[in-house]
Amino acid sequence: MGLYVYAVGRAGDDELPALEGILDQPVNRLEQGSLCAIVSECSLALVRAERRNIAANQRVLSALNTQFDILPMAFGAVTKSEAELRLFLDEHQDTLTAQLLRIAGAIEMSLRVRLEVPDPIAYLVERTPALRAARERTFRSRRPPSYDDRIRLGQLCEDALRQYRDGRTAQVVAVVGASCAEVMKLPVREEKEIANLAALVPRAGLDQFEVAVNESAAQLDEDIAFDISGPWPPHNFVQFNPVGQ
User: What are the record keywords, sorted (predicted)?
Assistant: First the structure.
């Protein structure tokens, strides 16, 4: 029988709560040395990313994350046998132990910062004299601007948006970072997004983190909105190859 692996943690932690995971199987610990894997029996060689399976995986990780330091595995991590999993824990003991030390006592919070305006480029043009002047030079003639002129103006606007993002992100991190063990900058997902941050926050420091976010929001433009979500397992702060890869 194979094992579905949800996370890696420390051996000797408090007893697990009663949990049902993938295929409604009970969740258990498999201890190996100073480490343990959180697992449930799995008769499937491949666990598909279906809604029911994803929900079961997330439910287990969320419950664990409230009480324990865990290194969440990528969804679908299945090992063929207990022996294979024990070998994985032995071979990667130093890396896994270092990762557990990195996230000790902390959870992950997501902080996304957005410009709540219809058109971010137009917003910046109206507030940036150099961009306004470039736009006027490009369109002042009665003839339509050339392709090269439009490209140059577009590049200026993209550069201005990048600089705006970098500046505002630095302001946010300067304030919020003091309440975090780490802050990681992730790629923005769309034009209106100014910053996409993952914050490693002490479990006991969530209130301070929220205070810092509110303080940062008060310092920025009124058109900027903050969105906090979490707590999550520290996916973005865990770096090692999952079981089976």
Answer: Gas vesicle, Plasmid
Task: For 188-226, write each residue's pLDDT tens digit.
Answer: 999 999 999 999 999 999 999 999 999 999 999 899 999
Domain contains 129 = yes
Q: Residue 235 and residue 114: Cα distance in Å, rounded? A: 23
Domain extent at residue 50: 2-104
Note the pTM of the prediction, 2 decimals.
Answer: 0.86
Overall residue count recorded for the chain in this entry: 245
Together in a domain, 31 and 120:
no
Domain ends where: 51, 79, 104? 104
Which residues does 198 contact at the CB level (< 8 Å), separation at least 6?
108, 109, 110, 111, 183, 184, 186, 236, 237
**230 class by beta-carbon count within 10 Å (0-12 exposed, 13-18 middle, 19+ buried):** middle
* Structure-token pair, residue 116: 């709540």
Q: How far is residue 243's CA from residue 245's CA, in Å, rounded to a whole number? A: 6
Domain-embedded: residue 96: yes
DSSP 8-state code for residue 240: S
